[in-house]
Write a structure and sequence with these properties.
alpha+beta, about 25% helix, four-stranded mixed beta sheet
Amino acid sequence: MLRKKALRKILITTFSLFTLFVIYLIPTKINDRYIGGDVEVEYTSNTTNQEIYLLGDNSYLVKFHIFLEDSSIEQQISTVLDYLKINSSKKLPDGLRGVIPEATSVLGVKVDGKSAILNFSKQLLEGEEKLEERMVEAIVYSVTALPEVDSVQIQVEGSPLLKLPKSGKVLEQELTRDFGINKVYDITNRNGIQKVTIYYLDKISNNNYYVPVTKYLNDDRDKIKIIIDNLASAYIHEENLMSYLNSKTTILDYSVEDNIFSLNLSNAIFGGDSILEEVEYTIQYSIFDNYDVDKVLLKVDGELVSELTRE
């Protein structure tokens, strides 16, 4: 009896070791990646994380990230424009949608230097009047988010789009981010008008969507002072938007050197023992949209707490 039990135990152990050995040798395919005994990972394609701007439930354009395959710049632009279509073939989260009329076709994409020339079918002009300007903002901001592109030229059936047909909004032939996004006008006279883009958080969404708002106002201060004052305000004038920046936060000093913006704030910015991520990003995104820098260093009482590189 003891001999049989010992023999049975040896057989079970041998079979288990053999099974593990076979599993170890046979490669397993997981999402187009093969993992063998040496645990090497082979990638079949490269992707980049890219920002685009989609319409949220609050009727503002919000920043959203997608993955683009490592293809030609023209193909990447075409993919971005597909995301911007109403009822896009690309799956989007609930609450976000495109602004380009669904029936619109992209007839051509050409990149000349740092300018993207986009040729659309005439259906581009058939959208709602209230979304005409939002559509142009979304195209300009999404396409110029690609590092290879600084400006956009919009054409319809080969002719430059110089005026929106329903709202009558006049357009420059070459559009940059100076066109603005989610525009708000807070001016009392035509003198000393300053344009500043400030990033807030979407209040009505369950996701932390960042919302850029281009403000036109009579304020001749440096833009960084306007940004911090607006984000620290106890009352946000724009509906459905919010900021977590403590209202007691003040600027101690700031500088721009070697394409790096260094901002030193008071310790009132701390929420507990650290800075909220939402606070960091609203400040840093706002700086990138207003200053030609590649990196933002955020400091508190002179101590570096975070840095962000332009996407």
